[in-house]
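__Record contents__

***
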Amino acid sequence: MTFTRNAFDNGAALAEALADRVADTLSAAIAARGSASLAVSGGSTPKAFFNALSGHGIDWSKVAITLVDERFVPADNPRSNHLLVKENLLKGPAAKANFIPLYRDASDAEAAAAISTKATANICSPFDVAILGMGNDGHTASFFPDGDNLADAIDSARARGILTMEAAGAGEKRLTFSFSALSDARLLVLHIEGAEKAATLEKALQDGPEEDMPIRAVLRRAESPVEIYWAP
């Protein structure tokens, strides 16, 4: 288990610091390899971070952005992570980035997962940056404790790519990158805010099955050190 903690006085300070860290990493990747990749999570927590990052003057035309996970809903659905990213990140300088969605207008979620696995194959081997969130139930990405494909999703030997997930706590059916596609990101971040999330993290750091709190799979087995960003 390898991780570092970065604590901030408030969410605004965290957002600026994380945006600086991610922008520096993406710029370094572009300088070294000519392109960069970024996988981001949804929810309300990353909005300030997205807005801060969108203003950075890096060469966004060389950055591919995708989602760690997504609900199987169209891009204009208010609950879609695609819409969240479009409104808060893909604007200003960052509007030039290449966004690769996970949702596809396919016959079902499994077909969409197959299409998006192919579409993202060249940018997740490994990702330059992957930003994870965490729910109060200990889920991350769409690795839900009661998920129907949880064992497959957190299997480190599974091929990189996207799979589907259904769970009582997930609402809509989900599309999610596998643990194997996220765990070796060159910069792997867990972004959480609030006292409740801090308590959930402390519980996850204790002994217990990964299936009960899937964030444990990341904290225990990720190939890259996890950088935890937290604010009250």
